[in-house]
């Protein structure tokens, strides 16, 4: 299935060749080269930023119907091609085909949602405290925005950044993760035919060290929205704040899934498996800490081990597979390293944690589950970002809540219980941006806000109407009679 085709950057309305190209390799089959993708240099990034800056005045004041139509066209084409694009996503990132198609559908719906937002822009018209004066409060586009996205959701996360940016009248310079450029290029190709003026949207693929840094430090970029690692995110924040650019960060997670004594055991096991291991555990909302109260603990450990024996690991495009490969050799090495660390610290490996042999050469790992772990272990405190989870035994609900909040992160948290009292208390007292009751911690809707607290997020929320907080600025106008 090797395809040696070259895929260029999209700058100022044109497809532009790059100085160098990089191979996009299928993690399910290392012999499958999806294509050669452009690696922009700093000069190309500057050209893209200049094009966006030049296009901004006209685009930011353009008619809302034209914006709506263009975004809706993008969404419609994504949905019409969801099987094709899902196949591409599964090949380059390693999600199972059903999950990949689901992600593509989500991306299409995001564009359609923000097409509607173009027609729902609102403000306030207020009387002043001064007689004969009125006040208008309106929102205007931020300007040129740099969008830097991760490899784990190669079309959904770009969609939830690009769509609102364009809907609210901004111009975009988009840098996808260097590891998964295929879906980003396909999305850019759809956008290139949707009716946006030249320069409004630009794609610059390449390394974070070159492309990302050129975007973040450029004084013509008014805001940067980044999803990725904590270390990189904090450095981006420093650079943006230094030059007073707006910044939005989504970073790490160490999400707790609490299982109380009164939980439905079968339901608790299923949501824990989905939270911890589906999408190969490569989700910032994945639950890697399973906090279980004493009365149900032993039964839960036994049931989890039994359930994990039925999980099928294999080629992402193979029917009947539950979990595909880890995305890359480096990520696989990191996962295996944490499995070793957990065992060396005294945690007990209950299931999985071994390499899996398949018909093709790929990065296949059986999900690992640990028991007898403590809150002080590295496996309980550091984000693995892979199919690795550990069970922590606690005495009761109060101890479970304290343990759930005992982390530097605060993205998503879940509780499994049949008690309305504990469910309501957990929703109020969990120090997370998103709380799930009897649901997996990973799995969110596209029309409501996404984001966390503490070390997980910085700045305003993404998705839904809350996206306008980042992509617009507020203007207050006073009108005298």
Automatic annotation (TrEMBL):
Active site residues according to the UniProt entry: 250
Kindly list the GO molecular function terms attached to this UniProt entry. Answer: oxidoreductase activity, acting on the aldehyde or oxo group of donors, NAD or NADP as acceptor
Residue ranges of the TM segments:
none
Enumerate the InterPro entries for this protein. Answer: Ald_DH/histidinol_DH, Ald_DH_C, Ald_DH_CS_CYS, Ald_DH_CS_GLU, Ald_DH_N, Aldehyde_DH_dom
Q: Does the keyword Mitochondrion apply?
A: no
Query: Where's the Aldehyde dehydrogenase domain?
Result: 22-476
Does the UniProt entry include the keyword Oxidoreductase?
A: yes
Q: Which Gene3D superfamilies match?
A: Aldehyde Dehydrogenase, Chain A, domain 1, Aldehyde Dehydrogenase, Chain A, domain 2
Q: Name one Pfam family in it.
A: Aldedh
Please, which domain of life does this record's source organism belong to?
Bacteria
Q: Which PROSITE patterns match?
A: ALDEHYDE_DEHYDR_CYS, ALDEHYDE_DEHYDR_GLU
Q: Which UniProt keywords apply?
A: Oxidoreductase
Q: Give the family, as the similarity comment puts it.
A: Belongs to the aldehyde dehydrogenase family.
Q: What is this protein called?
A: Aldehyde dehydrogenase family protein
The organism of origin for this protein: Pseudomonas psychrophila
């Amino acid at each position: 299935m090797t395809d040696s085709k070259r895929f260029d950057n999209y700058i100022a309305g044109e497809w532009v060749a790059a100085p160098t190209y990089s191979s996009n390799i299928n993690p399910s089959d290392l012999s499958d080269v999806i294509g050669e993708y452009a690696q922009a240099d700093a000069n190309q990034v500057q050209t893209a930023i200049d094009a966006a800056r030049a296009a901004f005045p006209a685009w930011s004041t353009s008619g809302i119907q034209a914006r709506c139509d263009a975004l809706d066209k993008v969404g419609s084409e994504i949905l019409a091609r969801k099987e094709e694009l899902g196949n591409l996503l599964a090949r380059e990132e390693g999600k199972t085909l059903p999950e990949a198609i689901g992600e593509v559908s989500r991306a299409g719906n995001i564009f359609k949602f923000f097409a509607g937002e173009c027609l729902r822009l609102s403000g306030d018209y207020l009387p002043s405290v001064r007689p004969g004066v009125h006040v208008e409060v309106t929102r205007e586009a931020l300007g040129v925005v740099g969008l830097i996205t991760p490899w784990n959701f190669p079309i959904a996360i770009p969609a939830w950044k690009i769509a609102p940016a364009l809907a609210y009248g901004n111009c975009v310079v988009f840098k996808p993760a260097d590891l998964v450029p295929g879906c980003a290029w396909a999305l850019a190709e759809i956008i290139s035919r949707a009716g946006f003026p030249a320069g409004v949207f630009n794609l610059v693929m390449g390394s974070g060290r070159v492309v990302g840094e050129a975007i973040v430090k450029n004084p013509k970029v008014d805001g940067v929205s980044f999803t990725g690692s904590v270390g990189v995110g904090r450095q981006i924040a420093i650079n943006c704040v230094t030059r007073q650019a707006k910044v939005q960060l989504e970073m790490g997670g160490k999400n707790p899934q609490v299982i109380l004594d009164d939980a439905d055991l079968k339901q608790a096991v299923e949501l824990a498996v989905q939270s911890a291991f589906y999408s190969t555990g490569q989700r910032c909302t994945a639950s890697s800490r399973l906090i279980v109260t004493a009365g149900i603990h032993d039964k839960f450990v036994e049931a989890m081990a039994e359930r994990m024996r039925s999980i099928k690991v294999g080629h992402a495009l193979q029917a009947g597979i539950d979990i595909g490969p880890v995305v890359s050799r480096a990520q696989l090495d990191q996962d295996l390293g944490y499995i070793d660390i957990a065992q060396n610290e005294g945690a007990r490996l209950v299931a999985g944690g071994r390499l899996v042999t398949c018909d093709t050469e790929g990065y296949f790992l059986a999900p690992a589950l640990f028991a007898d772990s403590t809150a002080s272990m590295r496996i309980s405190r550091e984000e693995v970002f892979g199919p690795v989870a550990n069970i922590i035994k606690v005495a009761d609900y109060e101890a479970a809540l304290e343990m759930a909040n005992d982390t530097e992160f605060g993205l998503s948290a879940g509780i499994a219980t049949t008690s309305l009292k504990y469910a309501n208390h957990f929703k109020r007292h969990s120090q997370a941006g998103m709380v799930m009751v009897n649901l997996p911690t990973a799995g969110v809707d596209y029309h409501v806000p996404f984001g966390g607290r503490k070390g997980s997020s910085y700045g305003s929320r993404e998705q839904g109407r809350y996206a306008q907080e980042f992509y617009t600025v507020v203007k207050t106008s006073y009108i005298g009679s």
